[in-house]
Amino acid sequence: MAETSMTIKEEAKHLVYLGRLSRLLTTLTSWAGALVLFINVLVVFTSVIWRYALQSPLHWAEEVARAMMIALVFFGVATSTGRGGHIGVDLFLRFLPENVRPYVIHASRWVLLLVSAGLVVSSYDLVQAARVQTTETGLPQVIYVIPVLVGSVVMMVAALEHALRASVRVVVLSGAGILGLALLGYLKLSLMADPASAAAGLMLVCFVLGILAGVPIAFTLGMSAMVFFICDPSLPFVFFSQQVAAGVDHFVLLAIPFFLLAGAAMEINGMSTRLVELIVRGMGRFRGGLNMTTVLSMAFFSGISGSKLADVAAVGGVLMPAVRRAKQDDKEAAGIFAASAVMAETIPPCVNLIVMGFVANISIGALFIAGLVPAACLLVLLLIAANRFGGRINVNEAYPVQRSRIQLWLGAAVGLVMIFMIGRGVMMGIATSTEISAFAVVYAIVVGRLAFGELTLRATVKMFIDIAAMSGVLLFIVACATSLSYALTIQMIPQQIAELLVGIGMQEGAWLFLLLTIVILIIFGAVLEGAPALIIFAPILVPIAIQLGFNPLHFAIVMILAMGFGLFSPPIGLGLYTTCAICGVEMKNVIRPMAKYLAVVMLGIIVVALIPSLTTWLPGLAGY
Fold first, then answer.
1. Residue 205 · residue 228 · CB < 8 Å
2. To the nearest 10°, the Cα dihedral for 141, 143, 147, 153?
3. Tell me, what DSSP letter sits at residue 375?
4. pLDDT tens across 203-213, in order?
5. How far is Cα 11 from Cα 228, in angstroms, rounded to an integer?
6. Which one has a higher pLDDT value, 139 or 110?
7. Dihedral sign, Cα of residue 523, residue 528, residue 530, residue 535
């Protein structure tokens, strides 16, 4: 008994040391990610100034920005892994017996460790291969791959610490379950004459099991791709980390963290609270005024932050206390938040518009413009529904202490100027979306600081750290989805799906193909998340749509709206889970009151799908 007690104490001591190491490494990557993000903003901003003001472009700027982009992603995802900040679908876990559920939940921690370890092994070989290579401008190629190795090592340490932080029984049995599944896969491969033929099947099994077990989305995708590269002996394992890194090695994707940063700066500056209060005091006297405020606020902030979940957090954190003070139904408020987030999917600078333009080779500027009229249509429909189904409120109850009108209008004006700057820059073709987003960051920090004085140095540093981590989570999903998409392409799966869908479109009509696209994106938008669904399906579906006579802008906007509908729909939409958590309500209580708003949104999506001119008219006027 004494020996057993001593062993437990030694294990606890080792776990303490491992925890300290993990926290130290996580702190280092969080500061490194923030620094990389700050330098990247300066590099992009400076390169634009040099090109336009001094007529002397910085030829190295884009390569440096891309290298720091990879560093940002892997430092950010390492930080989030240490913090436990990844999102998975836990709906299916509720159907498991209570005595089994803890083991399945803990097994996902072992998956994080396995994927991280796979990236460490693969990226080490990648670093060795890149040591003697240089970029087009003569920079060492290793600057692109060292952050992959460093971030993966920190991820592995953090994942190991999380995997060991539970009771011995849970740790051992969940680990044994993962080991057992791995041995079954190995036996299947060893018994086959051609192991590569089983790669696609095992990849699919890993994907399904990962989703059902609630493994975070990025690691479900990464695990599936990793298993494929392990199973196919004709492909070097170094391809795994190479494809993951290649998924975010694109200058255009820098617009995502930049717009997130600009939106966070405006929120910390207090603009969100001022704007929401202004709208409530203006709309409160109407029937459904608080619901209408939710719709309008989500539309406004979608033109700033770029992330729908960030929009819900910004507006929900401010508006939900007012909802409760005004004695309104918080379940219905959460439902209209989710429905409004679907409406806002096509309001620039939405992250998914940027991802769609990137993967489908469509002008991001054109997509920004094409999404405006469809969003306006959904906005009007939701405002009508909010007015029809909502009740009246007492504004003085919602806001017992009120700011002066001048303060409120100043907050709105600062935000409107930034939206105008983004929209004008895109329509005039003055700069790329990434360059415009860098200007938006500088504007939000400098002007917001001068106008409100709430963005202190300490708050600014914390903002860069938090946005670096958030960007890492979002873009690591993109990276792993790209790796999985590469594996699917090798297996000729997209080509087979394309042939099937082309046949359906030719025989049954193009509109049936469009209907199938909406259904597919709703389902996979709910299960995956916005970016992975678009990365996997857009390269397949957009060329088919063009072949069947659809305008690519019209088809892309329909895809994004359908994906958003799935993301914020019950019972498994990840976006709806997050919305309910932010609003402090349970999903089961939100489904009924939000059903009418989802029906309105679906009506709007159908209208947009059936009337292509709603998406093509405005881009045509702008010359696209």
1. no
2. 70
3. H
4. 888 888 888 88
5. 35
6. 110
7. negative
Is the pLDDT score of 605 beyond 80?
yes
Tokens of 426: 């895109």
Separation of first and last alpha carbons in the chain: 77
**H helical segments located in 361-404:** 364-370, 372-389, 395-398
- Cβ-based neighbours of 593, under 8 Å, separated by 6 or more: 329, 331, 332, 335
Residue among 43, 73, 172 nearest 475 (CA):
73
Residues in the chain: 624
CB 359 within 8 A of CB 484: no
Query: HSE of 219 in the Cβ direction (CA atoms, 13 Å)?
Result: 33
Q: What letter does residue 572 receive in the DSSP assignment?
A: T
Handedness of CA 609, 611, 616, 618 (dihedral sign): negative
Rounded to two decimals, the pTM is 0.84
| Full DSSP string of 451-512 | HH----HHHHHHHHHHHHHHHHHHHHHHHHHHHHHHHHHHTTHHHHHHHHHHHHHHHH-HHH
Angle, helices 238-246/217-231, rounded to nearest 10 degrees: 140
Mean pLDDT, rounded, for 387-410: 76
Q: Residue 104 and residue 175: Cα distance in Å, rounded?
A: 10
CA distance readout (Å), 191 to 185, 194, 197, 230, 491: 10, 9, 12, 16, 21
pLDDT at 427: 65
Asked if 433 and 364 count as a contact pair (C-beta separation under 8 A), the reply is: yes
Rg of the chain in Å (alpha carbons)? 25
Identify the band that residue 392 occupies on the pLDDT scale cut at 50, 70 and 90. Answer: confident
**Residues 6 or more apart whose Cβ sits within 8 Å of residue 446:** none
Beta carbons within 10 angstroms of residue 469's beta carbon: 27
